[in-house]
Specification:
Layout lengths: L1 H11 L2 H13 L7 E7 L15 H5 L9 E5 L4 E4 L5 H7 L7 E3 L5 H4 L6 H6 L5 E5 L1 H10 L1 H4 L11 E5 L4 E3 L2 E10 L2 E10 L2 E7 L7 H7 L4 E5 L12 H11 L3 E5 L7 H5 L6 E3 L5 E4 L4 E4 L10
Helix pairs in contact: 1-2
The structure holds zinc ion (2 copies).
The site of one zinc ion has 7 residues, from helix 5.
């Protein structure tokens, strides 16, 4: 493993690249770690707490009730990618000390999933003003081109600007050592893209947010997968998201080893509601890490700090 890292450093001849490889190596401190999932944000479109609302002090005292907009970071030895760039993208990158991104995958163009994208400019800059691959469905990509028209225009771009390299998804694709299978998910009147990750030939992780159901063919594909992340907006039904009972029924069918619920409103009080969930199902929270290797899935609970003090 170390010789591979050294070899890549010699090939690149770049100090920046060497720094990145060292960061990646230290991230692999645990020998059994192969794929790492980090919940950057787990909140619904407004975040939690919402603006201009009073909350009980006990609710605010729990850092797990402070939810930024939904996004995950996925890392292996060779690959670092993010799903969605939320309005808190910059804060999430700083909090998790992310030094490098190989690609951005986008689920759909709602504001809570894309509005931080311009801050990807820093990851272009650290690569020497290189374009950053952005993967999305054709419909989503068209919206990204409309929203970030200045970035998607033909170059040359000034140094330090966001330079997207658009990849329209037409089927499974590969990023580094990860195979990615896209899944179309119904999300009200639009379609959201779910992502399934195959690592070392095995289905490891499915990230299925912003959907009012998971189609049967998708459930059949990912049944018994190691980790699934599901939209579970709130306890009462919603037309464009799964509610808790719908998510739990879907989780039962998928039968993953670990199920995490995300895109959560303030109707969830983390510790209170976590206690009601079946074994193997967790409410995700900002900063939670999950590592996945051949025979082991492990949660790593960070030292939590509240974003908003009251
Ligand atoms: Zn959303
Ligand atoms: Zn949405």
């Amino acid at each position: 493993m170390n010789s591979q890292i050294t070899h890549k450093c010699l090939e690149s001849g770049s100090q920046k690249f060497i720094t990145f490889q060292i960061a990646q190596a230290s991230l692999k401190g645990s020998t059994y770690m192969q794929l790492k999932l980090t919940f950057l944000g787990t909140g619904t479109s407004q975040g939690v707490p919402v603006i201009a609302k009073e909350y009980p002090p006990e609710f605010l005292a729990n850092p797990k009730n402070h939810r930024t907009r939904p996004s995950v970071l996925i890392q292996t030895l060779k690959t670092t990618l993010i799903i969605d760039t939320t309005p808190e993208f910059r804060i999430q990158m700083l909090r998790e000390k992310v030094m490098w991104l190989d690609a951005v995958l986008v689920t759909h163009p709602h504001a809570d999933h894309v509005m931080g994208m311009d801050d990807c400019r820093r990851f272009c800059e650290v690569k020497g003003d290189a374009p950053l691959p952005v993967y999305a469905s054709e419909e989503t990509m068209n919206h990204l081109k409309r929203i970030f028209i200045y970035a998607f225009r033909p170059g040359p771009h000034p140094s330090g600007y966001f330079i997207p390299d658009p990849h329209i998804i037409t089927g499974p694709f590969t990023i580094g050592d990860l195979e990615v299978i896209p899944l179309e998910l119904p999300h009200g009147h639009i379609t959201s893209t779910g992502y399934v990750f195959v690592y070392e030939g095995k289905l490891r992780l499915a990230y299925l947010t912003d959907c009012n159901s998971v189609p049967d063919h998708a459930i059949n594909l990912i049944r018994d997968i190691d980790i699934v992340v599901l939209d579970a907006l709130r306890k009462h039904p919603h037309p464009t998201h799964m509610c808790l009972q719908e998510a739990l029924r879907t989780a039962e069918k998928i039968h993953a080893k670990h199920t995490y619920l995300t895109h959560l409103t303030h109707h969830y009080d983390h510790d209170v509601d976590q206690a009601t969930l079946p074994p193997g199902v967790w409410l995700a929270y900002d900063g939670l890490h999950v590592t996945c290797s051949e025979n082991r899935i492990e949660q790593i609970h960070p030292q939590l700090c509240r974003m908003f003090q009251q």
